[in-house]
């Protein structure tokens, strides 16, 4: 096994840059969309602030349909849609498109589950001082659930890193692509191993950062 | 200030429907402390939520400060809610905000400018005695401190009405008294009408002027706290009164009393403007009868004396009969008879079987020797009688 790291290293770095790019853009898009959907899922549920059976049912079913699909199948299944929107089915942007859809639905459920744990008494207290529903969502519900939400988003971030590696399989670029092209297809175990180490370090950093932010949000 | 007219709240529908509040008609006057007492599930929490429209009536009417709550739209309701303070059993403070942030929240909702907000928050924290905790997060406070923050928050926009929903139920006895004293100050110094929801008669006894007793969604009895204590009509009311005052011997206690004191025993009520300990001793002396106090207690209700003393009388039978006849003219007297010829006047005896089986139920607490006071065998002096006087406000249910 002879790995030429003087040529591989720059490619690895470029792959890392691509992964970070795909992951951060997906995190931003799905974080925002997922938060919106998650808050709606929570608030439109029966007995909650914006009780609305129609919106809740549609969202709930959509999340239940999309979420269980394995991502490697999902990314090929949305191919036609990706082609229509992005203009291609390979490359970073195509992967970002597919990942953002999947991650948004996952986030919606994560957000909803964390909001459910909010003390209803605190929401009642906010209603009792005359706060509007939208204000309660923005100034009570979300801030009160911030710590678990941060942990939820950390989980999401790691899930996106995971997805982005899978995307390499269909030529999406990034660390997964690197590991497959230079490691798996060339029977170079060393390259695969190094890529794994890089991904593990990335995930660890994300988790440490998430834990630290969540602790800051707890105010214990 | 607050009027309920046939107010009814039904949760659910069909056979599962629950009438949480059932045709309640009640008036709460301006500037008073009004108590609502009932066991959990009696509908008192729902009743109080009808006032600030956190719950809306199914039928009937609720009028608050001249506004018919039942006809208001969402934005008018928000204004109404902003003008009514509310305090909760579990405090319901926002953990993500500091003490000052929690107190400032209603002011933000009411769009106060930042400078005035800061000033008002400082004022409120000073009022509740937490000026030094402004920048602390609720997670670091004790229960009593949290409730004081809750009260400061409820008072932020200077409401005319304060609703206290089991405000002391999660607190220990000492802290309960602190919070009750604070609610009293809110009523006295700020002129706020206070509605107190509780399942503890002692809370009612300590601060309320009028009380409504709720059971199964209905108000079964209401009136001035003093009158309700003096003559509870309903079974539920008698049970609550029994838990707050243990001045009358339970059947078990009476049995032990008879064992120790074979002579004639009477229970003499001590009421505002009726007989008192001093009258009792003077009357005893006039009839040449000796009395020793064997049981009883005098406490304050609505800041007036209330209680009873059970006395063993020693003297010739004729004098004792004459004495009892005279006492009956000014006080309410229950003749318990002697060991040989017992008389079980039911109104003098708190029925033990009606008490919930909590460890502090009268039948059990009465067993302690310290609960019974062995008075001097002869000539009860006026001094020793008044020495029993009125216990400090903190004591619960007087001495026994």
TrEMBL record, chain A:
CDD domains: TM_PBP2. Residues 16-210 form the ABC transmembrane type-1 domain. Signal peptide: none annotated. The chain crosses the membrane at residues 20-42, 54-77, 83-106, 150-171, 191-214. InterPro entries: AA_ABC_Transporter_Permease, MetI-like, MetI-like_sf. Pfam families: BPD_transp_1 (PF00528). Gene3D superfamilies: MetI-like. It comes from the Bacteria. It is a multi-pass membrane protein. Keywords: Cell membrane, Membrane, Transmembrane, Transmembrane helix, Transport. One of its GO terms (cellular component) is plasma membrane. It is found in: Cell membrane. GO terms for biological process: D-methionine transmembrane transport. Belongs to the binding-protein-dependent transport system permease family. This is ABC transporter permease.
UniProtKB/TrEMBL annotation, chain B:
CDD domains: ABC_MetN_methionine_transporter. Residues 265-341 form the ACT domain. Residues 334-344 have a biased composition (Basic and acidic residues). GO terms for cellular component: plasma membrane. InterPro entries: AAA+_ATPase, ABC_transporter-like_ATP-bd, ABC_transporter-like_CS, ACT-like_dom_sf, ACT_dom, MetN_ABC, MetN_ABC_transporter-like, NIL_domain. GO terms for molecular function: ATP binding; ATP hydrolysis activity. GO terms for biological process: amino acid transport. Part of the ABC transporter FtsEX involved in cellular division. Has ATPase activity. Belongs to the ABC transporter superfamily. Homodimer. Forms a membrane-associated complex with FtsX. This is Methionine ABC transporter ATP-binding protein. The lineage of its organism: Bacteria, Bacillati, Actinomycetota, Actinomycetes, Jiangellales.
């Amino acid at each position: 096994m002879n790995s030429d790291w003087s040529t591989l290293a720059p490619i690895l770095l470029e792959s890392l840059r691509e992964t970070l790019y795909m992951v951060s853009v997906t995190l931003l898009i799905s974080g925002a969309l997922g938060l919106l959907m998650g808050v709606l899922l929570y608030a439109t549920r029966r007995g909650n602030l914006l009780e609305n059976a129609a919106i809740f049912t549609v969202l709930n079913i959509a999340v239940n349909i999309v979420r269980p699909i394995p991502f490697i199948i999902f990314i090929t299944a949305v191919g036609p849609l990706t082609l229509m929107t992005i203009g291609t089915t390979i490359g970073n942007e195509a992967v970002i498109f597919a990942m953002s859809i999947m991650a948004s639905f996952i986030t919606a459920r994560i957000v909803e589950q964390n909001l459910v744990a909010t003390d209803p008494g605190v929401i009642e207290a906010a209603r009792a001082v005359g706060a509007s529903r939208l204000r309660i969502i923005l100034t009570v519900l979300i801030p009160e659930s911030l710590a678990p939400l941060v942990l939820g988003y950390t989980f999401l971030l790691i899930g996106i890193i995971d997805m982005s590696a899978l995307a390499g399989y269909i030529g999406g670029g990034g660390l997964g692509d690197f590991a497959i092209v230079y490691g798996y297809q060339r029977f170079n175990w060393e390259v695969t191993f190094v890529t794994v180490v890089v991904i593990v370090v990335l995930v660890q950093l994300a988790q440490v950062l998430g834990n630290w932010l969540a602790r800051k949000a707890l105010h214990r | 200030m607050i009027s309920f007219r046939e107010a009814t709240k039904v949760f659910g529908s069909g056979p599962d429907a629950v009438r949480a509040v059932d045709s309640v008609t009640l008036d709460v006057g301006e500037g008073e402390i009004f108590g609502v007492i009932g066991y959990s599930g009696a509908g008192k929490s729902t009743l109080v939520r009808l006032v600030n429209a956190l719950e809306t009536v199914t039928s009937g009417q609720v009028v608050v400060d001249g506004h018919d709550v039942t006809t208001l739209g969402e934005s008018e309701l928000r204004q109404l809610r902003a003008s009514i303070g509310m305090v909760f059993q579990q405090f319901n403070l926002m953990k993500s905000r500091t003490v000052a942030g929690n107190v400032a929240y209603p002011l933000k909702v009411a769009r106060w400018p930042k400078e005035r907000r800061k000033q008002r928050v400082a004022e409120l924290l000073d009022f509740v005695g937490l000026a030094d905790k402004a920048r602390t997060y609720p997670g670091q406070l004790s229960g009593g401190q949290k409730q004081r923050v809750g009260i400061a928050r409820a008072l932020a926009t200077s409401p005319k009405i304060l609703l206290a929903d089991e405000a002391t139920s999660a607190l220990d006895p000492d802290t309960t008294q602190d919070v009750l004293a604070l609610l009293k100050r809110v009523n006295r110094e700020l002129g706020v009408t206070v509605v107190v929801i509780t399942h503890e008669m002692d809370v009612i006894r300590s601060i309320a002027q009028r009380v409504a007793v709720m059971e199964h969604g209905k108000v079964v009895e209401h009136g001035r706290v003093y009158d309700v204590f003096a003559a509870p009509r309903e079974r539920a009311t008698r049970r609550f009164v029994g838990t707050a005052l243990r001045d009358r011997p339970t059947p078990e206690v009476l049995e032990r009393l008879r064992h120790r004191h074979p002579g004639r025993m009477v229970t003499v009520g001590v009421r505002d403007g009726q007989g008192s300990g001093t009258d009792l001793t003077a009357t005893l002396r006039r009839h040449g009868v000796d009395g020793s106090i064997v049981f009883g207690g005098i406490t304050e209700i609505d800041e007036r004396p209330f209680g009873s003393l059970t006395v063993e009388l020693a003297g010739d039978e004729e004098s004792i009969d004459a004495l009892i006849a005279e006492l009956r003219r000014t006080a309410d007297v229950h003749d318990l008879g002697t060991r040989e010829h017992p008389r079980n006047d039911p109104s003098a005896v708190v029925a033990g079987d009606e008490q919930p089986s909590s460890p502090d139920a009268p039948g059990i607490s009465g067993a302690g020797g310290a609960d019974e006071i062995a008075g001097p065998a002869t000539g009860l002096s006026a001094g020793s009688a008044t020495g029993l006087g009125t216990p400090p406000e903190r004591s619960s249910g007087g001495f026994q």
